Amino acid sequence: MFSKLIAPAFAVLAAISILVDAARTHNGHTTADRPKIVPFPYTTGKKFYDSPRRTRHCFVDALGNGQDDSDNILAAAKSCNNGGTIALLDDLYLIGKALDLTFLNHVDFDIQGTLKFIPDVAYWEANSFKFTFQGANTMILFGGEDINIFGSGKGTIDGSGQTWWDGYATNSSIYRPMMVGVSGMKGGTWSGLKMQNPPNWFQWVTDSNDIIYDNMNLQVFSMNKNSPKNTDGWDSYRSDNIIVQNSVVNNTDDCFSWKPNSTNIVVQNNQCTGSHGMSIGSLGQYQGVYDLVENVLIYNTTMTNVGSAARIKVYPDVNPNVPNNGASGGGIGMVNNITYDGMHINSADWAIELTQCYGQSNQTICSAYPSKLVITDVMFKNFDGVASKKYDPKVATLVCSSPLVCQCIHTKNINVKPPSGKPAQHVCKNLYRGFLEGLNCVDS
Ligand SMILES: *[C@@H]1O[C@H](CO)[C@@H](O)[C@H](O)[C@H]1NC(C)=O
Ligand SMILES: *[C@@H]1O[C@H](CO)[C@@H](O)[C@H](O)[C@H]1NC(C)=O
Ligand SMILES: *[C@@H]1O[C@H](CO)[C@@H](O)[C@H](O)[C@H]1NC(C)=O
Ligand SMILES: *[C@@H]1O[C@H](CO)[C@@H](O)[C@H](O)[C@H]1NC(C)=O
Ligand SMILES: *[C@@H]1O[C@H](CO)[C@@H](O)[C@H](O)[C@H]1NC(C)=O
Ligand SMILES: *[C@@H]1O[C@H](CO)[C@@H](O)[C@H](O)[C@H]1NC(C)=O
């Protein structure tokens, strides 16, 4: 009860109140407790951050009337950095400026309202945070050490994607940012948040480690005939020790996508609807570049109306007789120690799609120039449910470019049926069939 009100430093920041320690309520809203998040049932075997408690709150009052709240959110993040909580308890905050929050250190965000990005296509094209990899660019960036962002089941981040999907319908080069960027985050949790309608991917996680996502709810919905574009749930890059669990994703592209140098990642107890799959890759796209994806467990996933459920896509080497711009295969590296355990399928074109001939539809050429990115120690087990009609009676495809670069690929207890009720068939090429327990291999 002895909370102290510190006068805001600048008049322009009158919408921020900083209350030390005991304060729990502000303008009739009460702060939430930071949830305790534990990896379950599996973990990566590596340590996660044990955050100390925070000792002060910075409450941001939404300006309302269509005004941009981003300056106030930035100022609150600075004021409550190093041991505080930024409390966003009002119904709606608008974000009309690119927010660089990579300076964070021992700080929490208690989000109970909606953070909505203002859909100014030209502004974001000029001001989003740009990364070199695959043109990734984001509207907000979070980074730093020991950061917990929690939505307590009601906090929402809304990308206003409709504007970009509508724009895309007439101009497919429209510049579409990813929504949330996590860059250089060392130790953090994201939980109880709803995310909706990103213009492009939901989140781009780069150069980060020791992060847990729990109880997230990712949704896309269009108000007209223009469908959401490339709405990947998570894309990880140059990142280590990440868990995504107890989450629900309803989107139109990969549920989780492992890009180069993603290691020690456990994705468990999630439900994906509409997606292209739990997708490793594509990898090996750039000639001479080394890509690594290692130590991944995908456990207990429900996949509904998906293109592929378990997916690994790797480029072959390049055909020296064909002009190549250096960006369509020939990469080196390794996909190693990957386990898909427990996939419950309600309609998937492919329950398993493993290809080492990505971007090269001619199998003769793929086999003549096998991939330099080796795939080793992969297990697909405990799959059940029904595939889609698309390739009936085929339900899975495992196509390597050569058995020498595709080793120890195992299957066990694969019980996915085609809708026709015929015996399931599985395409198996250039890999040792002795490890493919329970598959009914066909050549094509
Ligand atoms: C399409 O969008 C791109 C990227 O903003 C822009 O450079 C180009 O001029 C647009 N094309 C048309 C026809 O509007
Ligand atoms: C997924 O989103 C689509 C489009 O908005 C909607 O029709 C469908 O009911 C949703 N499914 C689930 C499981 O949320
Ligand atoms: C990925 O890791 C490998 C091996 O450590 C390294 O050679 C390569 O440069 C890394 N790639 C990127 C994009 O950082
Ligand atoms: C699998 O995940 C679902 C949530 O998607 C959960 O309800 C269920 O208990 C999990 N089952 C196991 C065996 O962990
Ligand atoms: C394989 O990956 C899993 C999941 O990250 C990990 O628990 C296990 O220790 C890894 N195995 C080896 C031999 O590194
Ligand atoms: C695949 O490539 C081989 C070798 O270049 C060629 O002979 C064959 O016709 C190609 N097949 C198809 C279906 O294009």
Automatic annotation (TrEMBL):
GO terms, molecular function: galacturan 1,4-alpha-galacturonidase activity; polygalacturonase activity
Name this polypeptide is given: galacturonan 1,4-alpha-galacturonidase
Entry keyword annotation includes Hydrolase: yes
Location in the cell: Secreted
Taxonomic source organism: Dactylellina haptotyla (strain CBS 200.50)
Catalysis performed (reactions): [(1->4)-alpha-D-galacturonosyl](n) + H2O = alpha-D-galacturonate + [(1->4)-alpha-D-galacturonosyl](n-1)
Main location, first listed in the record: secreted
Superkingdom of the organism of origin: Eukaryota
EC nos: 3.2.1.67
InterPro entries: Glyco_hydro_28, Pectin_lyas_fold, Pectin_lyase_fold/virulence
UniProt keyword annotation of Secreted present: yes
Pfam families linked: Glyco_hydro_28
Catalytic center residues: 276
GO-annotated cellular components: extracellular region
Similarity-based family: Belongs to the glycosyl hydrolase 28 family.
Signal sequence range: 1-22
Gene Ontology biological process terms from the UniProt entry: carbohydrate metabolic process; cell wall organization
Keywords annotated in UniProt: Cell wall biogenesis/degradation, Disulfide bond, Glycoprotein, Glycosidase, Hydrolase, Repeat, Secreted, Signal
